[in-house]
Amino acid sequence: MSDQISLTVDTRETVGKSVKRLRKDGLVPGVIHDHGKASVHIQGNYRDLNKVYVQAGKHHPVQLTAGGKKYTTIIKTVTFDPKYNMLTHIVFGAISANEKVDAEIPVHPAYAEGNDSSPAERTGLIVLGQLTTVSVKALSKDLPDVLTYDAEKLVAVGDQVTVADLHLPNGVELEIEPEHVIATVFEPSALAAANDEAGGDAEADVTSVDSDNESTAEEGTQAAEQSPGGKEQKESHDQGTNPAKN
Fold first, then answer.
1. Looking at the chain, which terminus has fewer C-beta neighbours within 10 angstroms, N or C?
2. Cα–chain-centroid distance for residue 94?
3. What's the pTM?
4. Dist CA 135 CA 16 (whole Å)
5. Which residues contact 182 (CB under 8 A, 6 or more apart)?
6. Residues 203-219, mean pLDDT to the nearest whole number
7. Alpha carbon of 76 to those of 40, 90, 92, 222: distances in Å?
8. Which of the following CATH numbers is that of domain 5-97+214-233: 3.40.50.720, 2.40.240.10, 3.40.50.300, 2.60.120.620?
9. pLDDT tens-digit readout, 128-167
10. 237 and 57 Cβ atoms separated by less than 8 Å
């Protein structure tokens, strides 16, 4: 795990639809859920909170100070404005050093020294990724910043890497089936033909998925803040802003 990520935020009294005023002032409302205790309502500078999300994702512990109290947390839920793609709400879950936590770890290919692509890509084939993160469980000190797989295994059309191919550190347990495919090699012409055949239907499906995943700032805030502390929230975020893809 990389360096410690820390941030000091303010506690807040403003809740519900009134948080619109906070956003106009460049602030982002949020919540800390602490093992079933009363939730702590917080607010922070947009730039600071967005930077923390980009750095920490949903896998790196964040040391939060709020109302003079320190919390070790993991980001559980983020909500983005679907029109402007701006962070509008954030939910942190407090964790303890001796507690195993669930986290979403980014998945990256590991290339041979001197290369920046797989053997398949070096011969003009296409590698289509099907997973960008995987769910794991581990102590906070054992959570990796990234999980890698050997991209040299991707050579010919039809070659695949699965979750079972990930290099898993000691103390980290997978929370996803090992048979789940991470990436597959395709012939460019075959992939193009499949896309053409899908045509407008495929595009319509993507639009539908996006609309299900996104929510307004008010909806995300209400759902997160009305739930009891310590219970995981339903995620609502823009996939394009997920740091796991960076």
1. C
2. 17
3. 0.71
4. 31
5. 107, 129, 130, 131, 149, 160, 161, 162, 163, 165, 166
6. 37
7. 14, 8, 5, 15
8. 2.40.240.10
9. 999 999 999 999 999 999 999 999 999 999 999 999 999 9
10. no
